[in-house]
Amino acid sequence: MSDEDTRFMRRALRLATRAAGRTSPNPMVGTVIVRGTEIVGEGYHRAAGEPHAEVSALTKAGDAARGATLYTTLEPCAHHGRTPPCVDAILAAGVRRVVAAMRDPDPRTDGKGFRQLKAAGVEVEPGVLEAEALRLNEGFVSRVRRGRPFVVVKLATTLDGRVTAPGRRYLVGKRALREVHRLRDRSDAVLVGIGTVLADDPALTVREVTGRDPLRVIVDTEARTPPTAKVVRAKDPQHTVLFVARDADARRTNKLREAGVLLTTLPRADGGLDLGAAMRWLGEHGVNTVLSEAGPRVAGALVRGGLADRLMIITAPIAGGDGPPALAGVTGTAELKNLRVRRFGEDVAVEGDL
Question: Residue 108 and which of 96, 141, 312, 316 are 20 to 30 A apart at CA?
């Protein structure tokens, strides 16, 4: 792996991130085509059903792709989906060398793309900035390999680890709030519990930054979500998923269905709903990433159930909070990995993988 390979792959990774939250069920992919030391074409996958990154870059490169090196963040696909295989387009364009960051975990490809390219005489070099590519597509990899989305549990707390404070609607300041909305924009779904809906009546939209609204997911065992709640009265109620118990009150569930939301029943577990079943349902419906903004009970259940992949705790400079601890019911200890500490105004965010 040369310095040049690293430089162009970093460019491809940056391109791929432009579509964060917009490609599911597909992965984020960026591609750069280089002839000599000049970029002759580049592109990224913008959304499911749109051209793949490789095809977009090849289209821009035109005849200049012949004999060139193609850098891509993911192994080129070798199967027919909504679009034809990218391997066919690469071979037709006469690309001499393909440098890929990671192998595609999708069993329809999973090494097949590399093998077809090599069989046709194309030089293939995989594994360039593989760790960065895996993190970029941690949601896609999670859904394909584990059958569920990658889940980030975000909580805002006081210095003493509580999630509310007297007289405060938001614990954190404007800069931290803007970061949360940026995360919403980049996530496929945002999840809260019924406690949050009843206490705050959140819209769960993206407002503090320019972006798109994620799928709204409500964990509501007894179907207590009011038909007047913002997540129900939204202009696109079908973009709200309510998980309720199979034996929830039929009158309430019928009213919510009539309001246009997507209501799904799940078995009970752990004093509430089977959140593992909820995550599997989301995975089956193409959701790669979930941002949990739920309160302590649901957050604690996600951690206890091994369903939380990353924790993000934003601490406000406030002492003397109210309510239960941030991760209710979590009694064991877990050391976070890949720790990241950032400051947003007066608030401090600590983020790490479980």
Answer: 96
Residue that the structure tokens 């805002």 belong to: 156
* pLDDT digit string, tens, across residues 326-353: 898 888 888 899 999 999 999 999 999 9
Query: Do the beta carbons of residue 342 and residue 351 sit within 8 Å?
Result: yes
Domains along the chain? 3-139 (3.40.140.10), 147-353 (3.40.430.10)
Rounded distance between C-alpha atoms, residue 172 and residue 345, angstroms: 9
DSSP, res 205: -
Which residues, 6+ apart, have CB-to-CB distance to 65 below 8 Å? 33, 35, 40, 41, 58, 93, 94, 95
> Coil, helix or strand for 289?
strand
Instruction: Give catalytic status of residue 222 as yes or no.
Output: no
> What residues contact residue 49 under an 8 Å CB cut-off, 6+ apart?
82, 83
Strands 162-164 and 310-315: unpaired
Q: Are 291 and 152 in contact, with CB atoms under 8 Å apart?
A: yes
Per-residue pLDDT reduced to its tens digit, 229-277 = 999 999 999 999 999 999 999 999 999 999 999 999 999 998 899 999 9
Packing angle of the helix pair 275-284, 296-304 (nearest 10 deg)? 80
Rounded distance between C-alpha atoms, residue 268 and residue 278, angstroms: 11
Q: What is the pTM of this model?
A: 0.94
> Residues with Cβ < 8 Å from 131, sequence gap 6 or more?
none
**Catalytic-labelled residue, pool 38, 42, 50, 54:** 54
- Residue 137 CA to residue 73 CA, distance in Å, equals 10
Is pLDDT at 75 greater than 80 in this prediction? yes
**Amino acid letter at 151?**
V
